[in-house]
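Tutorial handout. Part one gives the primary structure; part two gives the three-dimensional structure as tokens.
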Amino acid sequence: MLITGSPSSIVGALNLMTAQVFRRIALSLPQATENSHMDHPDFRVGGKIFASLGYPNDKCGMVKLQPEEQESFSQNYPDAFAPVKGGWGRQGATQVHLENVDAPTLRRAMTAAHQNVTSKRSSRNKR
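Part two.
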């Protein structure tokens, strides 16, 4: 197979994010499970959602970040990450445009989202 194009387009094509890869990354995190909410797949740890797929369409996912993390990912990767509209977005729900994110970047965002959920659970259990 002959691959042609600019180096960045070739790298982009080789790192194409799909729902299947998004799912694989989410489920590779400790104690992560897949469930469903509002007719689309979500990923949870300890019953709390840290990521979801397919909202508002099949080209998107969502990760729950802290507001400062959301701002950082949105500024550094504006084609890949954006706050979800409305109140959920102000609370850190961050839309992921699958066609514009590579696996290492998504893994960093997803790991942060997973840690945010697990750290909240840990602090509650210490009380």
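Part three, for discussion. Residues 13 and 68 are 30 Å apart (CA to CA). Residues 17-125 form a domain with the Aspartate Aminotransferase, domain 1 fold (CATH 3.90.1150.30).
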